[in-house]
């Protein structure tokens, strides 16, 4: 999933997101953080950012591309990483 806050992501905010249960990794992509997770961590990520005093201004789930849909439909594989 992608997360953005006003003013952009800082190393401190990346560290906040890395501590969210279920998050396996956080990479910066410009002014966004891209989270890899083993389940939907959107509510916990938003709570963590709010607790840190940085309400999110961008939140988007990634992973539902056509290839993932094809594999889910024809092979039963999920392929969704958050």
Structural summary, described in words:
Helices cover 34% and strands 27% of the residues. The chain has 82 residues and is of the alpha+beta class. The protein has a 4-stranded antiparallel sheet with strand order 2-3-1-4, with helices on one face. A hairpin with a 2-residue loop joins strand 2 and strand 3. The longest helix has 10 residues, at 42-51.
Strand order of the largest sheet: 2-3-1-4
CATH architecture: 2-Layer Sandwich
Count all strands and give the number. Answer: 4
Class by alpha and beta content: alpha+beta
Kindly report how far apart the N and C termini lie. 6 Å
CATH fold annotation: Alpha-Beta Plaits
Shape: elongated
Features:
elongated, 27% strand, 4-stranded antiparallel β-sheet, 82 residues, Alpha-Beta Plaits, 3 helices, alpha+beta
